[in-house]
Amino acid sequence: MTMINRCAVVNSGYINKWFYFNIFKVNGPGYTNPYASDMSSPFSDPSTSSSCDGLSGDGWEDKNIRRMFIRKVFTILMVQLMVTFAVVALFTFCDEVRQFVQYNRLLYLASYITFMGTYLVLVCSTTTRRQYPTNLILLSIFTLAMSYMAGMLASYHNTKVVMLCVGITATVCLAVTLFCFQSKFDFTSCHGLMFSLMMVLMLTGLLLIFTAPFGYIPWLQTAYAGLGALVFTLFLAFDVQLLMGNRRYSLSPEEHVFGAICLYMDIVYIFFFLLQLFGSRE
Question: What is the pTM of this model?
Answer without folding.
Answer: 0.77
